[in-house]
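Bench notes, afternoon.
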Amino acid sequence: MWTEEDIKRFLDLIEFYQLEYPVEMNQMSIFELRSICNGIGPDSWPDELRKISTMLFGPYALLHVPHDVRFEKKIGTREQADREFYNNGIRIWKIRWGAWRYFSWQAIKEWLTLLAAYKLLSKFSKKAWES
């Protein structure tokens, strides 16, 4: 789904935003990350649907990278992976919006989207974790 350049860009953004991620990612090659990271949405979705859901997530699309790695390698717990996804999203949101996040309808909408994604993820990720 992702090119080598996409993965490098995600890794640069993870560093820029100082996001949480499993330290095991540091030892993974771009090729291995490309094979693991499949976008936002369950593996059971067709690639095209995951591409659309990831595209709709805009600047938050990179959140799937650490989450996918945790799920593929079973690093930590499912709850930890899901919570990290949300915490990373909030970190990006705070940096993107600064103090305006409390006064901008668009910022509040983005926060609600992150919260909804986290709730859905928490509800439906159990099956993926156990597979």
